[in-house]
Structure formats: C-alpha cells, structure tokens
Fold this sequence. Notes:
mainly alpha; 62% helix; 5 helices; rod-shaped
Amino acid sequence: MRELEKLEEDFIKEVLDELTRYQIDSVKKKEVKGQLTEHFLEARQHGELGLEGIGTSSDFVKEFIEVNGMGTDPMRPSAGHMPKRLIIGSGAMVITFLLSQLILAMFLTDSLSPVFTDQSFSFNLVYRISNNTWWNSLLILISLSVASLATVMTIKYAPIRRVGLK
C-alpha cells in the first residue's frame, strides 16, 4: 500500500511540474492537486487503483489545458523575454558608459576645466578625455567595467511584464 502512495505522490509532483512548464498559476495548480488527491483517496476507498484511468502526467496536463481552453504549447519563461532584456541591457550599457566617462572626465582630468588652455587637444568623451594614452585606457577600462556590471544587473533583474493566459 505504501508503494502506491509513493506512486501517487510522484504522479502529483510530475503533474505540478508539467503545469509549471505551461505557466499555469498557483491557484489552478492547487485545484489540480486537490482534485488528484481526492481522486486517489476515493479510488482507495472503493478498492481501486487511482492511477489506472488517468494515464501519464503529460497526457493529464494536456487534457486539463484543452478542457480549460488554454494554450497547448509549453512556455519558456525567460526565452520569450530575452530580446527585450537584451535591448534594455544594451541601452543601459551605452548610457552607463557615457555617464561614467563624463563623471571621470569631470573629476579626474582637466579636460572640462575652464582653465584648460591646450588648443591642440581634441577632446572626445568616448575614447579621448586626457592627453595621456595610458590614462585614457584606464578610464575607458573603468567605464567599461562599470557599464558591464550595470548591464548584467539590468538584464538579470529588470522587471519585464509578462502577458499571462486569461
């Protein structure tokens, strides 16, 4: 009898995992779990095996989705939103890099100082904010590091609204 209970628990777990793949909300998952538990208990009271008439967990979930009129394709939670996240991350990269370069130019170089009088110096915020090549390289490396960190954080933690099934 104990082995049958373990099989029933495994079946319920498989069904819940399958429902998660289809992005079914937690209320519906609780309903399904309750219905399956009730079915197994009633079958046991009648001396029957509850798993016989149900089939496999994926067949059960597909039938449940068709009966409730939901989409039949499993959803991949992050795959559909990755292009949007990459666009947002790319924008964050560019903005963070330029802001970092501007802040470093303002506080660590004389390029934006009103008393800076070197007329031969051609200032460029992206790659040349100082007369020294090594200093430019270091500032660009710092800005790229900060921008990369901001991009990773944006891609990982940016709130993306998901359009759910109704």
